Amino acid sequence: MFPSPSALAACAPPRPLVPMDDVRASAPSPTVDAAPHLLGGGPKHSGLDLYARYAFAGALCCSITHGALTPVDVVKTRIQLDPTVYNRGMVAAFRQVISAEGASALLTGFGPTFAGYFIQGAFKFGGYELWKGQLIDLVGAHNAPEYRVPIYLTASALAEFVADIALCPLEATRIRMVSQPDFAKGLVPGFTRLLREEGVVRGFYSGFGPILFKQVPYTMAKFAVYEMAAEKIYAGISTPKDQLATGTVTAVNLGAGLIAGIAAAIISQPADTLLSKINKSKGVEGESVTSRLVGLAKQLGPKGLFLGLGARIVMVGALTAGQFAINGDVKRALGAEGGHEIAKVK
């Protein structure tokens, strides 16, 4: 559906640094000389090899953070799906789950969570860098800083759309396992049962509309707010970015990621609630996904759509901060930290 990274990299002309004192728009060029180095020396990287490293860094940061926060996600999902039972807050809900089902219940859905977000993270972070580079080419390197926010938003939306095609079947499996603990004992049994009983479209993609409605605005806010927050933080530091200590860069990534995560959580909360509800059980025969969404939204109302927001802010804020910190460190370790940077600097 989209051109491959290798084809795009082969066709894209080199992008020089902007010759202005107060503006920078840099990007990894497909030429060997402009590609980043491995830490400690070694060969340089460009084209498909470079984007593969971006994708691997994204896969690791998303799978690790989402996997680590599986207990929080289990509790959040229970609050959304059964608010009459889990109605005393996040901490009390943790205790209720452990008391009723044991501590192991907090890891329900860990398999599909880790696998799904490993795949999704590769497409999301790798695709974001890919599309950002193409959009820089489209508007021109000299104009890119003035159009940086639309570039961030468009690149992240395109990357997330592709990522969600891969994520949706595993997310549907996870939600079914969390909402029905006896549905399956693991990822493979749950995945195959859902496929066998409900088919590809109804079983795996009945929540595709809600997941796009949730994930696309979430990712747009996540990347755009992160980029702008990091830009402001770096602007307040007298030392140039390329001269900062590794720990300082990681701290900036954490701080900007936390800000981005809070904003993204609030924006995407209603769709997250609808996604949990629509994947909880089968729909009525012949009922369209749109009809189910409209009916659920009317039934829940504005207050119901924001059920579990507190838990989700904690979860999304923490995982987004962790993602950008891990992503930056892994890219640096892989020699892929050049990236496409568009920023107004002093």
Give a topology summary:
Blueprint: H1 5-11, E1 23-26, H2 47-68, H3 70-81, H4 90-101, H5 110-139, H6 148-179, H7 187-204, H8 208-235, H9 246-278, H10 289-305, H11 309-334, E2 341-344
Antiparallel strand pairs: 1-2
Helix pairs in contact: 1-2, 2-5, 2-11, 3-4, 3-11, 5-6, 6-7, 6-8, 8-9, 9-10, 9-11
InterPro entries: MCP, MCP_dom_sf, MCP_transmembrane, SLC25A3/Pic2/Mir1-like
Solcar repeats: 49-134, 147-232, 248-333
Membrane topology: Multi-pass membrane protein
Describe the structure.
By secondary structure, the chain is an all-alpha fold. The chain has one domain (47-281, 289-334): Alpha/alpha barrel (Mitochondrial carrier fold). The chain is 68% helix and 2% strand. The radius of gyration is 21 Å and the shape is globular. It is found in: Mitochondrion inner membrane. One of its GO terms (molecular function) is phosphate transmembrane transporter activity.
Concise account of the structure shown:
The chain is mainly alpha-helical and 346 residues long.
The low-confidence parts are 14-44
Overall 3D form: globular
Strand order of the largest sheet: 1-2
Largest sheet: 2 strands, antiparallel
Radius of gyration: 21 Å
